[in-house]
Amino acid sequence: MAAGVSRGLLRQRNFAALWWGQLISILGERLTYLALVGLLAEHTQHFRDTGSSWLLSALANVMLAPVLLLAPFTGAWVDRWNLRRVLIASDALRAGVVLSIPILYAWTHGVAPVFAQVFVLFTCNVFFLPAKSAITPEIVPPSQLLAANALLSVAGIVSTAVGALLGGWVIDHWGWGLALEINAVTYVASVAALALISYRPTEHPPADGPEGWRGYLREVGEGWRVLKGSPRVGLGLTALAAVWMGGGFLHVAGNQHIQRAASVPGMERLGVLLCALGLGAGLSTWWINTRGRAAPRPAVLGIGLVLAAGALAAFAASTRFAVFVASSFLVGAFVAPAFVLSETLLQEGAEPRQRGRVFSARDFLMRLLFLLTATVAAWLTRGFGTRVALLASACIVAVAGALAMAWGMLDPALMREKGRA
Fold first, then answer.
1. 63: domain CATH number?
2. Mean pLDDT estimate for the chain
């Protein structure tokens, strides 16, 4: 039945347009990440310079700064705007920004102007991401929400697998600049797909914005109260936090661990590992949308995170590329439920007029955790090596898995909830 629901969703014009837009733009985003890492690798002699770990940490900080500065406040505005227009405008702006990065680096041969453009690029994300999460439950029926989120996750997985392999090869053979140019084209194609959505917004407050600063801050606070008061939201955020914290360590320590273990440093190895991660996540997402519907959500999330911690520990302990590939596949398989189920839990736990604020607050919290863990990872890697930093990340993910299972003990209703058909 789940397979039939998925096919039905992809035959719906609005959801199909959103899905294809995400598939194309996420493909470009994977190229962007690899291209930026490739730029820093070129700038630091393949991360052999002593300051390379801090440059990777700085890149993470610049990527996250717009969310930390703006996300707590943009959700109240996103809730008032036409979500389709927000998505289209964001992708159009992102196309122009990524085109400018190779030009600026060629002129200056410095990373500061590049970081400035990365800041602008991720400022667009501050509006795009909550709008995408908020529009999904408005264009699909509630009974199809889990299937819709699973399909959107599949779009990200397919894009990650293809983009990682393509991006790693393109960067090593043709340069990171071409990868960014390809990314610009994917954003333009996404704009064309999103323009096909026929969307009638739910009734929002007046378009001229909140009535004064007190009214604005009151609306912002409503989003935070939803995060604080809903067990569903708490469970989803716990699982998602583990993924983002592990990602902070992998961004700094993982990249260096891979490059230092390689006989010939380059981006192709990273691309292969991201592809393996995507394949594991794809298998897990299929399970979540079929047989996994019958499993209690806290148990799925908690057990998955604990197993992911074991795969991270194996990754940290080895220098063999085959182990890296196997570990990446397992990490993808075990953490994929955190993305699918947390999205659904937050959508179910928030009212339509609050979703922009809830997802903006989520983005703020997750990026803050990523920033903190990337900074800690840079310190641990510099002082104790990549292995210690990666083992620390495994411990954090395992603890989060235990906390996710604890949510089920605190609220038995969550253990009884299953995915909808």
1. 1.20.1250.20
2. 78
